[in-house]
What we know:
The protein has a five-stranded mixed beta sheet with strand order 4-7-8-9-10. Helices cover 22% and strands 33% of the residues. The longest helix has 15 residues. The protein is of the alpha+beta class. It has one domain: tt1808, chain A (Alpha-Beta Complex), CATH 3.90.1570.30.
Amino acid sequence: xxxxxxxxxTYVQDLVRKKWLVLSPEEFVRQHLLYYLMTVKQYPASxxxxxxxxxxxxxxKRYDLVVYDRNKQPYLLVECKAPYIDLNESVIEQALxxxxxxxxxxxxxxxxxxxxxxxxxxxxVELPTYTTSE
Length: 134
């Protein structure tokens, strides 16, 4: 993960957007997850969107990560939290609310210490490795 210091701040280069961002606790989690998704689980960077806006009713919200399938449909919605944030029911509800718009079949919540992957029907599952035969 490329890091640099400037004016007393630490910055990280986003692995997908290729821009420098302040390294906040949540950004640390997001960048580590991106690295994991791309190197271990083999998800192509070209199918990952980071911090994009969505409209939920009349509210503008921003999701953390969405992985798309080859048909450009949302496949995995990820909500990242800082390591000191508990992955509780309100975090799950936030991901489920965002998924009312995105309709991804898989959702993931993570704080970098623990994570949960579940289906839109709220069944806990393992995070699959990317396959070219989907």
